[in-house]
């Protein structure tokens, strides 16, 4: 039987096919996407909750930093009066009224009417309509601009001349800016295809919106009545009573516009009737803090998922066996949970953590037996366990497997590497002697019966490396004498090779060729997929039969 060449495993003797991935029919569709999102949310719940709370906090700070905005709406109904001359043309008048509604709406939006309201209420010096203080961006740009001017040679501003004209220009520009801001805050719209027009104004002052909306309605009435008064005065058949009525309506509309209210007397000649006066708002209509906070939470959650997606794309560390199998097309034979202080298989299980650890070692051993059914044939087998780094927990897995096998009344030999957690001290430590290590025996050219194995927990243990640096440097693990030592251990029972880390030494590659099967260990959350892939490729290039992987310290 050759042990240094990879051999295909009998498909009928295995539960899973090593060279074929199991099909997953549930990997597509919205349900599968929902499962993936739920799994990601459960795995990265801390990051998602952090992003969610950050989004809620920022949105809350932004919402409560915004000034409150109050809105008031006045409702106007257009209803032109009929004159005696047009009493018979009812059909044409209705058609003309429908076409005229949009024209009246544009009259309300006109600059002449709005400027009259703006001047009547003396809004030129309103703080909210005047120039606003520069923001953070404007200040930063100003600092940069002044720094550049200083760097160019300290250019100073030209002396001020004609200060009165400059001040008047600034005042004019401020008034224009205030009027433009005023027109942005007021809106007039027609309700559907009806004759109803809604006039709305928004302001941070809770009393101002109603005044502006009512003043706009009064200003519209003032313009219509004043126009009719002028026509009546120009007509030859105008009666003094008609003129006096129009004059009273004009005065009432003017006073109402200036005071921000509605006319105090009926205005039948205004061709419009007020059906809803603007009232002071009971509360601010903006900002909608709850909506802003909810939107901030949604954006924070989406940002959290984006952060998790980027983290997954950049983080190539091994998390679970399914991910590793999918990436490498190599079956994961076991997943060993993290148990603090776990060091082998105890004789008596005392807590749930020990039970989970021993159950995982037991499952790994069963998977190995199933995978090696065609190789055993009543013979002992050699299993090598290796990892890319020394802290992957290879020694713990090998020790647990060896103790579990020995307690089933089968002899087992463990060739143990000295890892970072093993200081080499102990009552049976004789690695300074050539008989106390595999490297020493190879360097001294000893026979298998000359080696001194340590008996630890029913397992025959022999360190791979010696405490003598010269023996480790000059030992040749491809020497046939190493095969003889391993074959001699195989004749007594199963053999476990606890190989050193691949990133530190190539001795593991030489020793892995003597094993029937090789397991590659990956530490969850630390070993990357590229490191496992590189380990598998290096082992297969040397002729090792890699049959699967093991996840250690899984959560």
**Approximately what portion of the residues adopt beta-strand conformation?**
5-15%
- Low-pLDDT runs: 1-25, 82-96, 155-170, 420-428
Instruction: Round the Cα radius of gyration to an integer and report it.
Output: 45 Å
- How helical, in percent, are the residues? 40-55%
The biggest sheet, with number of strands, parallel, antiparallel or mixed sense and barrel status, is:
8 strands, mixed
Helix count, per DSSP? 18
Order of adjacent strands in the largest pleated sheet: 5-12-11-6-10-7-9-8
Distance from N terminus to C terminus (CA atoms, Å) equals 40 Å
Membrane topology: Multi-pass membrane protein
Protein name: Wzz/FepE/Etk N-terminal domain-containing protein
Domain Polysaccharide chain length determinant N-terminal: 37-120
Pfam families: Wzz (PF02706)
Question: Could you characterize what this model shows?
Answer:
The chain is of the alpha/beta class and 555 residues long. It is 48% helix and 13% strand. It contains 18 helices and twelve strands. It has helices at residues 30-43, 45-65, 90-109, 111-120, 136-151, 163-185, 208-234, 240-259, 289-314, 321-328, 352-371, 373-376, 394-406, 438-444, 469-474, 480-490, 507-512, 529-541, and strands spanning 70-78, 186-190, 196-203, 272-276, 332-337, 382-387, 412-416, 454-456, 459-463, 494-498, 517-523, 546-554. α18 links the parallel β11 (517-523) and β12 (546-554). α4 packs across α7, α7 (208-234) packs antiparallel against α8 and α11 crosses α13. The longest helix is centred in the middle third of the chain and has 27 residues, at 208-234. The chain is rod-shaped, with a radius of gyration of 45 Å. The two termini are 40 Å apart.
């Amino acid at each position: 039987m050759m042990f240094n060449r990879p051999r295909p495993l009998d498909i009928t003797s295995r539960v899973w096919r090593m060279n074929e991935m199991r099909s997953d029919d549930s990997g597509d569709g919205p349900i599968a996407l929902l499962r993936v999102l739920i799994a990601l949310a459960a795995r990265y719940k801390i990051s998602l909750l952090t992003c969610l709370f950050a989004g809620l906090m920022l949105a809350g700070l932004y919402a409560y930093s915004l000034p409150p905005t109050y809105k008031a709406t006045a409702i106007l109904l257009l209803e032109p009066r009929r004159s005696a001359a047009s009493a018979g043309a009812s059909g044409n008048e209705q058609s003309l009224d429908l076409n005229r509604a949009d024209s009246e709406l544009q009259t309300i939006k006109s600059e002449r009417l709005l400027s009259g309201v703006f001047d009547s209420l003396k809004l030129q010096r309103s703080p909210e309509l005047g120039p606003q203080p520069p923001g953070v961006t404007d200040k930063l740009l100003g600092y940069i601009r002044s720094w550049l001017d200083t760097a160019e040679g300290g250019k100073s501003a030209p002396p001020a001349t004609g200060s009165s004209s400059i001040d008047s220009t600034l005042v004019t520009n401020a008034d224009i800016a205030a009027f433009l801001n005023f027109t942005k805050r007021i809106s007039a719209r027609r309700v559907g295809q009806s004759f109803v027009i809604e006039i709305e104004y928004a302001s941070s002052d809770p009393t101002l919106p109603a005044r502006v909306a009512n003043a706009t309605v009064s200003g519209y009435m003032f313009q219509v009545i004043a126009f009719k008064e002028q026509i009546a005065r120009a007509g030859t058949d105008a009666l003094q009573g008609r003129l006096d009525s129009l004059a009273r309506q004009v005065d009432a509309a003017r006073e109402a516009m200036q005071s921000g209210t509605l006319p105090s007397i009926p205005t039948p000649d205004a061709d419009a009737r007020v059906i809803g006066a603007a009232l002071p708002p009971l509360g601010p209509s903006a900002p909608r803090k709850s909506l802003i906070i909810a939107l901030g939470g949604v954006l924070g959650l989406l940002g959290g998922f984006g952060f998790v997606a980027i983290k997954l794309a950049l983080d190539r560390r091994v998390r679970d066996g399914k991910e590793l199998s999918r990436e490498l097309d190599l079956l994961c034979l076991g997943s060993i949970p993290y148990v603090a202080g776990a060091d082998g298989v105890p004789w008596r299980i005392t807590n749930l953590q020990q039970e989970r650890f021993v159950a995982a070692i037991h499952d790994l051993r069963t998977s190995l037996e199933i995978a090696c059914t065609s190789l055993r044939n009543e013979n002992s087998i050699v299993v090598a366990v290796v990892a890319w780094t020394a802290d992957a927990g290879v020694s713990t897995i090998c020790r647990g497997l060896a103790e579990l096998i020995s307690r089933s009344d089968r002899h087992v030999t463990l060739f143990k590497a000295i890892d970072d957690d093993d200081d080499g001290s102990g009552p049976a430590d004789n690695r300074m002697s050539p008989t106390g290590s595999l490297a020493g025996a190879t360097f001294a050219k000893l026979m298998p019966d000359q080696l001194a194995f340590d008996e630890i927990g029913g397992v025959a243990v022999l360190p791979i490396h010696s405490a003598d640096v010269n023996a480790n440097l000059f030992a040749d693990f491809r020497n046939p004498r190493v095969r003889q030592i391993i074959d001699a251990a195989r004749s007594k029972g199963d053999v476990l090779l606890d190989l050193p880390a691949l990133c530190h030494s190539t001795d593991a590659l030489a020793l892995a060729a003597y094993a029937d099967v090789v397991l590659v260990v990956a530490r969850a959350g630390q070993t990357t997929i590229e490191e496992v892939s590189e380990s598998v490729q290096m082992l297969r290039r040397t002729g090792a039969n890699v049959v699967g992987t093991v996840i250690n310290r899984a959560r």
